[in-house]
């Protein structure tokens, strides 16, 4: 399979990965290198745009929400410098509006986190007409909800009252959810 993937990648194997989650970024970069890509990584919109301008990649994986801005800015820069690049947008916030915006700007595909290297590779190498196959083990709806609540909780500096207000739920309900183990 690795030989087939190398053929599918083509001559230019450059891959830019932009994500502010450093452990995830390192894991994905290592996994993509094992699949034959020549990876370069960035932790911010500014760094991603600088790399895309200096060395436009053939492939890119860009997180939608980064600490210093919107990942779609990086996608736009890549599209300006290299219109044939294949770009996959990753996000922890799966919403139809952001998926439409990503595709309009020029993303090849849109994946919800946590996406593994197999999902990313399939999306990057999919033909324009053929969609990549659905994930083998997608997250359950309960797991997606739990992940979203955890993310908002972390963004609110683990403040239960603020998180409950932003999620429009009762504080005690949120406390019960946070006390439970994550669903499968």
Automatic annotation (TrEMBL):
<keyword id="KW-0010">Activator</keyword>
<keyword id="KW-0238">DNA-binding</keyword>
<comment type="function">
    <text>Member of the two-component regulatory system RegB/RegA. Involved in transactivating anaerobic expression of the photosynthetic apparatus. It is a transcriptional regulator that is responsible for activating expression of the puf, puh, and puc operons in response to a decrease in oxygen tension.</text>
</comment>
<feature type="modified residue" description="4-aspartylphosphate">
    <location>
        <position position="63"/>
    </location>
</feature>
<feature type="domain" description="Response regulatory">
    <location>
        <begin position="14"/>
        <end position="128"/>
    </location>
</feature>
<dbReference type="InterPro" id="IPR050595">
    <property type="entry name" value="Bact_response_regulator"/>
</dbReference>
<keyword id="KW-0805">Transcription regulation</keyword>
<keyword id="KW-0597">Phosphoprotein</keyword>
<dbReference type="InterPro" id="IPR001789">
    <property type="entry name" value="Sig_transdc_resp-reg_receiver"/>
</dbReference>
<protein>
    <recommendedName>
        <fullName>Photosynthetic apparatus regulatory protein RegA</fullName>
    </recommendedName>
</protein>
<keyword id="KW-0902">Two-component regulatory system</keyword>
<dbReference type="GO" id="GO:0000160">
    <property type="term" value="P:phosphorelay signal transduction system"/>
</dbReference>
<dbReference type="Pfam" id="PF00072">
    <property type="entry name" value="Response_reg"/>
</dbReference>
<dbReference type="GO" id="GO:0003677">
    <property type="term" value="F:DNA binding"/>
</dbReference>
<dbReference type="InterPro" id="IPR011006">
    <property type="entry name" value="CheY-like_superfamily"/>
</dbReference>
<keyword id="KW-0804">Transcription</keyword>
<dbReference type="InterPro" id="IPR047772">
    <property type="entry name" value="ActR_PrrA_rreg"/>
</dbReference>
């Amino acid at each position: 399979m690795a030989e087939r993937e190398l053929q599918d990648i083509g001559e230019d194997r450059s891959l830019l990965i932009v994500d502010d989650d450093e452990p995830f970024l390192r894991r994905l970069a290592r996994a993509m290198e094992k699949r034959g890509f020549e990876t370069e990584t960035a932790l911010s919109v500014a760094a991603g745009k600088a790399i895309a301008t200096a060395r436009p990649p053939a492939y890119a994986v860009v997180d939608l929400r980064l600490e210093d801005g919107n990942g779609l800015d990086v996608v736009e820069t890549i599209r300006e410098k290299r219109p044939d690049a294949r770009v996959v947008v990753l996000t922890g916030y799966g919403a139809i509006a952001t998926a439409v915006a990503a595709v309009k700007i020029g993303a090849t595909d849109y994946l919800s986190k946590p996406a593994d290297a197999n999902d990313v590779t399939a999306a990057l190498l999919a033909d324009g007409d053929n969609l990549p196959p659905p994930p083998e083990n997608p997250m359950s709806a309960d797991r997606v909800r739990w992940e979203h609540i955890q993310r908002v909780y972390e963004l609110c500096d683990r403040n239960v009252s603020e998180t409950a207000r932003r999620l429009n739920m009762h504080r005690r309900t949120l406390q019960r959810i946070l006390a439970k183990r994550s669903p499968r």
